[in-house]
Design goal:
The protein is of the alpha/beta class. The protein contains 25 helices and ten strands. Helix 1 runs antiparallel to helix 2, helix 7 packs across helix 12 and helix 9 crosses helix 11. The longest helix has about 35 residues. The protein is globular.
């Protein structure tokens, strides 16, 4: 039987954290000593002091990452750690109906959302555990086309699975506080009916056995408030997505094992593919409103880190199930979509600066918040460090004086400047590459290369991933630096749906507009470095090449494969070569759905409204899902009547977006629109509706109309 998760000795946690801190310091100090000695020999001044301070912060972050891999590699060699989460071997009955599986969505592809839910539903059913779970789709969609698609897909899936008492759909009228508010609304309304909540994203996928294991682990650990899985990336088709997918799959296990080894029951929450104990979550995780306005103030955007910190502060454990398989998600398909997602995450993480000194938080929770901030703040720090390096060289060249070095701070260290600089560069690269080597050793010792398609594919993948990282990292550095500047000047982030899949590739115009600044920076910076010193230019070449080629790189990395193309060599993953049952099931469901029927261009903008008004089944489903509103005033009823008449007489183009949404949220208006559109003479309605009715009649049987009266 597993050791309870809530009985971890404090001394053990302190010892493991001391090891991590000591290793990080040990890896950082030699580089700092070498850099300090180099500046001393050249001649210290305030510019060099700033340069050294930036290097100290950045080197410590790199050393910390290397330490995670080192600790994880060693932890994965040990078999007797009683505090590591492992699957429960003995079958145990699950509490019936005690777990809600919730999926917040916002203008997502309904076909993918409900295909994923179906795969998970059938996986639980095949394991005989379906009675323990209810499913909720929590929609915040404000695009009528997406909204109506969701309702129709929910109704169809509920009917096909006979799941009317188990699969529920709710759409909020007002999208207060985005995803965090969506989940909070569910918890307030229905949270009291459940013991646990499994939180998913729209692209999440989890095997039924994995979900069951999470519940069993919670049942065995009554003081654990949250268990986070480590999702694996799947369904990447573009080169950019495959690059992320391969790197995450190969390098992820050693990092995750290292994080779990020392964080133990004070781990972090990533917002999805996790199970939450609802009672303490409801009691302790109400999010505060930060002082001031956006982008730093107002409602918290990145809620997950904060909720984990609040649970830990209240004495509840938060764990990372690093060794639990069967948890999956997807990733952005293009560099531009990836940057848009990072724009949202960046502002949310920067907000956490308010909470670093919050009362009662544990030191590890403060570290999580700080590292979340530095994950994005490191980009402008790297940019400042590299620019300052260029400036220091320019200042030296501008004097026209020959550099006369001082004696080294260390007796016997007789290195010239170029050798000392090369040693610093090599040491930093070593810290970056050691985790990759450890991941390869781990693959050889634990898993073996056949699951990746053999060592040739593995080494080829590592080579491509390394080249891709070297080219794209400077571009992301410039993206993040710009985003932080926007945030500092008060430009908040808009809430947009995340683009997934391979159907959103940028065109040349979008790529040029997005990356023109990056190209200019690469060209200007490279030319300046070459003019200053050809050797320095060669040193800087990896930094400026990516921005200089950012437009073609962005386009090339976003090209989807040809239909029915074989798996790309060598960036393949085990989930692609031998799909687990739930991943294979999702693929079959999506393939079985077939291609979407084409929507005539003239109806595309308002196709959801068209369906909700014309189709009797869609109209009935839509009306049944609308919550009753308070009795409208006479002025309100008159407004809706005017909007209905205008919609029918002039067509959807005559109404503003907010008016269409208002009609769609009013049950009486939708009932009357359906009745009126099928009974009104053709001459009394817009040509758009006349064509829509003809189109509908070609696709499905419909009531007779009076179009030709």
């Amino acid at each position: 039987m597993n050791t309870p998760l809530d009985q971890i000795p404090t001394g053990l946690k302190l010892r493991r954290r001391f090891v991590v801190a000591a290793l990080t310091l040990l890896l950082t100090l030699p580089g700092l000593a070498l850099m300090a000695d180099l500046h001393w020999r050249i001649g210290p001044d305030p510019w060099k002091a700033a340069h050294f301070a930036l290097y100290a912060v950045l080197l410590a972050l790199v050393a910390y990452g290397c330490t995670q891999a080192l600790v994880g590699f060693v932890a994965r060699r040990g078999r007797g750690d009683p505090w590591r989460l492992r699957p429960v071997a003995t079958p145990e009955a699950l509490p019936p109906g005690a777990t809600a599986i919730v999926m917040p969505v916002y203008n997502e592809d309904a076909r993918r959302v409900f295909a994923g839910l179906r795969a998970m539903y059938e996986s639980l059913h095949a394991g005989g555990h379906l009675d323990a779970f209810h499913f909720y789709v929590l929609s915040d969609s404000n695009d009528p086309n997406r909204w109506i698609d969701e309702e129709a897909a929910w109704a169809a899936l509920t009917r096909e699975l006979d799941a009317a008492s188990r699969l529920f759909y709710r759409r909020r009228r007002i999208n207060t506080n985005k995803k965090a508010g969506n989940l909070a609304d569910f918890c307030r309304r229905w949270g009291g009916a459940y013991r646990y909540m499994v939180v998913l994203d729209a692209d999440s996928l989890m095997a039924g056995d994995t979900i069951v294991q999470l519940v069993r682990l919670m049942e065995r650990s009554p003081r654990t408030g949250l268990i986070q899985t480590a999702p694996r990336l799947i369904h990447g088709t573009t080169p950019f997505a495959r690059w992320q997918q391969f790197a995450s799959r190969l390098y992820g296990p050693v990092f995750q094992a290292g994080i779990d080894h020392w964080q133990l029951d004070e781990s972090n929450y990533w917002g999805h593919n996790a199970i939450v104990r609802l009672a303490p979550f409801l009691e302790h995780c109400s999010l505060p409103e930060l002082p001031g306005r956006e982008p730093f103030g107002g409602r918290i955007l990145s809620h997950d880190y904060v909720e984990a910190a609040l649970l830990v502060r209240a004495g509840w454990g938060v764990r990372l199930a690093a060794g639990l398989d069967g948890s999956y998600e997807e990733c952005p398909a293009t560099l531009i979509d990836f940057a848009k997602r990072d724009r949202r995450w960046l502002q949310g993480n920067l907000q956490h600066s308010w909470l670093l000194a919050a009362q009662g938080l544990r030191p590890v929770s403060r570290l999580h918040l700080l590292l979340g901030i530095l994950a994005y703040a490191a980009s402008p720090l790297w940019l400042a460090f590299l620019l300052l390096s260029t400036l220091l060289l320019h200042r030296q060249q501008a004097t026209g004086l020959t550099l006369v070095p001082r004696d080294s701070l260390v007796d016997g260290l007789n290195l010239d400047f170029h050798t000392q600089g090369a040693a610093l560069f090599a040491g930093t690269l070593a810290l970056l590459f050691v985790p990759k080597l450890l991941a390869l050793f781990d693959l050889a010792l634990v898993r073996g290369a056949p699951e990746f398609g053999g060592w040739r594919r593995v080494f080829g993948g590592v080579a491509l991933e390394t080249i891709g990282s070297a080219l794209l990292a400077p571009v992301l550095m410039l993206f993040h630096s710009k985003f932080i500047l926007w945030t500092l000047v008060g430009r908040g982030v808009a809430w947009v749906a995340q683009q997934r899949g391979s159907g959103n590739s940028p065109d040349w115009r979008e790529a040029i507009l997005t990356h023109a600044g990056h190209t200019g920076v690469g060209l200007t910076w490279g030319a300046a470095a070459l003019a200053l010193d050809p050797t320095f230019f060669l040193w800087l070449l990896p930094v400026v090449t990516g921005p200089l080629l950012s437009v073609p790189l962005s386009l090339a990395s976003a090209n989807p494969p040809q239909p029915d193309a074989p798996p790309a060599w060598p960036l393949t993953t085990p989930e692609e070569l031998a799909p687990p049952p739930v991943v294979a099931a999702l693929g079959r469901i999506l393939a079985g759905a077939g291609p979407r029927p084409p929507v005539p261009p003239e109806f595309a903008a308002d196709y959801g409204l068209l369906q909700a008004v014309l189709d009797p089944y869609v109209n009935a489903v839509h009306v049944s899902l609308l919550r009753d509103k308070a009795v409208a005033t006479e002025g309100g009823r008159d407004r809706f009547a005017v909007l209905r008449d205008k919609l029918i007489a002039a067509g959807p183009a005559a109404l503003e977006r907010r008016d269409k949404l208002a009609l769609l949220t009013d049950a009486q208006s939708m009932i009357r629109l359906h009745r009126d559109i099928w009974s009104r003479p053709g001459g009394a309605m817009a040509e758009w509706w006349r064509q829509a009715i003809r189109q509908y009649n070609r696709l499905a049987p419909a009531p007779s109309t009076a179009l030709d009266r």
